[in-house]
What does this fold into?
Amino acid sequence: MFGRGVRLAWRRRVDSAASLAFFLIVAALFPLALMSEARSGLAPAATWIAALLATTLGSLRLFTDDAANGVLDQLLLAPGGTGLAVGGLLCAHFVTVGAPLLGASPLVALFYDLSFEQWARLAVSLLLGLPALCVLSALGAALTLGARAGGLLLALLVVPWGVPVLLFGIGAAQGISNGAMLLLAAATLFALALGPWGVGAALRMNAE
It folds into this structure.
């Protein structure tokens, strides 16, 4: 399912590009209202807000094509377990949506005039936290699959869910204490452990 997820994302590469572009645009807007000396302090919050919104946007059509052509029905009947199959899709989702945001972090460092040390903390926080955001956005996409105004519902679900990860990520990027980094890592491990099964249950509920 990982390979299939990557191939589907490549066919929908405009969606992935839109998510990345949205991330960069949101991250670039904040410095316009600030003096240069205040930019670096705002970078963690602005970047994490942009990442939360961009991963939500990148999940809008995560399961749409598979639901339309019947692949989701086969996935739910997979002999190896729905959780493992969904886990492959979630890995592909991170590679095609989350990883590009991480790769764009040097541009964010330029927007905010970050030092190498500040950028490194921000990049590590994104590396630890983006998988959790991808899992949460995928769960929201599974719950709202086929719903009217699904994009609005997706945002209403995922943004509140993502607030703890957002706060841990901001704290980790600011480097105030190691506690935020540990909490961020714990949140991601929790999401990775339970996320595939939760997404699978949501898809199964939608199929019934």
